[in-house]
């Protein structure tokens, strides 16, 4: 089975790139995140629609 390119060139780009440190990923607890999304989506949109109706 033919390969895509010669094996002498394998990993050339990956080995040439500098090693980066992994970034720390910090997500909010799902309960807090869901509450904030709910407030943003439901409560704030409800306030805007009331203000327009007045």
TrEMBL record:
What keywords would UniProt list here? Answer: Ribonucleoprotein, Ribosomal protein
Per the record, which residues fall in region Disordered?
Answer: 1-54
Under Gene Ontology molecular function, one entry of this record is: structural constituent of ribosome
Entry keyword annotation includes Ribosomal protein:
yes
Q: Output the InterPro entries linked to this UniProt entry.
A: Ribosomal_eS30
Q: Give a yes or no for keyword Acyltransferase in this entry.
A: no
Which is one Pfam family of this protein?
A: Ribosomal_S30
Composition bias, Basic and acidic residues: 26-42
The cross-references to NCBIfam families, in alphabetical order and at most eight, read: PRK09336.1 (NF006817)
* Name this protein carries in UniProt: 30S ribosomal protein S30E
- What organism is the protein native to? Sulfolobus acidocaldarius (strain ATCC 33909 / DSM 639 / JCM 8929 / NBRC 15157 / NCIMB 11770)
